[in-house]
Design brief:
2 copies of one chain form a homodimer. By secondary structure, chain A is an alpha/beta fold. Chain A has one domain: 3-Layer(aba) Sandwich (Rossmann fold). Chain A is 46% helix and 17% strand. In chain A, strands 3-2-4-5-1-6 form a 6-stranded parallel sheet, with helices on both faces. The termini of chain A are far apart. Strand 6 of chain A pairs antiparallel with strand 6 of chain B, so a sheet runs across the interface. Chains A, B: Required for both de novo synthesis of the corrin ring for the assimilation of exogenous corrinoids. Participates in the adenosylation of a variety of incomplete and complete corrinoids. Chains A, B: It is an enzyme of class 2 (transferase). Chains A, B: InterPro entries: CblAdoTrfase_CobA (IPR003724), P-loop_NTPase (IPR027417).
């Protein structure tokens, strides 16, 4: 074994010991309130990656899409066509708000979505709920942030996971959440004239 | 219509016009080099969310997992069991490097993974390739960053998308990429003693 390999292996052994010790303290299981926000990519797609994991593990799950309603997204077709029993899929909203240009209709759609979301979160047969793009509805005050946070903190069943996605998450939601990830944009090809593409963006 | 609604609708109309104009300039389609990095969650799971979109759109895809080799991840079981034709799944590596504590074996596994990765990227029948956790192998110099970047820039077929995940992406890779997202950790429940849970972390 050469020097660099020996040093590396010793270092890795130390890291493993520290990690094992740290992981011993991680014993609690509980349903998490998770937020994916920020201007970067990956907020919705990582939510759907978790849905894939849930289906694989036999964890019953549900999706409520708040904003991308009338888009033919890959995830909607995929889950509706192939996993209708494993994952319930609801759509509320009719595209981004600058597409509809009708605030009253947007508010109605958001409120309808939130009613469905509450039902799914409270449902004993659902353990993981993805509220896709709900942050947009909260940002424009289509939904009352205090009501949403209060429900998540006090009525969500203890073991149910809820993921809330969308940019500009409200500070109240970030405060209430267990796990918050900010997706930042380091580089984006839109700037160079590349359009949204299948598989990547939708 | 009340004042606030009228103002809102006018504002949304203006945003839509600006957006439509902007989108008109986005006409190019090309295979992208995409990087998901940073200490936050969602780097791998958003890659798998994109794989879900690809399968749904009929885009043939492949995954090479560099580091999480011996974990029974939900995504591995899901794709291997249910979509063996739609998504090729390769594993190279035997767990995080602090688990194996054997640098030579890690290097061999990484190099084998990279050979598979190149084959898949060059394959005419594959249009989307996810190189999961390759950044870890690059960070420890198990793979040569110059060789990887050179291959991506000069040998990758023009229309093939490649996603590279893992924290601590090398500056050379960020420079070469079309789209880079940094996942930042705003809050993490590990700090409060909550352990990694099915569906969420794997």
């Amino acid at each position: 074994m050469d020097d660099i390999t020996e040093r590396h292996n010793a270092k890795m052994k130390k890291i493993k010991a520290a990690r094992d010790k740290m992981m011993e303290t991680k014993t609690e299981e509980k349903g998490l309130i998770m937020v994916h926000t920020g201007p970067g990519k990956g907020k919705s797609s990582s939510g759907f990656g978790m849905i894939m994991r849930c289906i694989s593990h036999g964890i019953p799950c549900a999706v409520v899409q708040f904003i991308k309603g009338n888009w033919d997204t890959g995830e909607k077709t995929f889950l509706r066509d192939r996993f209708p029993d494993e994952c319930r899929f609801f759509v509320s909203g009719e595209g981004f708000t600058w597409e509809t240009q009708d605030r009253d209709r947007d508010i109605m759609a958001a409120k309808k979505g939130w009613e469905i979301a509450k039902e799914q979160i409270l449902d004993d047969e659902v353990d993981f709920v993805l509220l896709d793009e709900i942050n947009i509805a909260l940002r424009y005050d289509y939904l009352d942030i205090d009501e949403v946070v209060d429900f998540l903190l006090h009525q969500k069943p203890r073991m149910t996971h809820v993921v809330l996605t969308g940019r500009n998450a409200k500070p109240e939601l970030i405060e209430a959440a267990d796990l918050v990830t900010e997706m930042s944009l380091v580089k984006h090809p839109f700037k160079d004239g590349v359009k949204a593409q299948k598989g990547v963006e939708f």
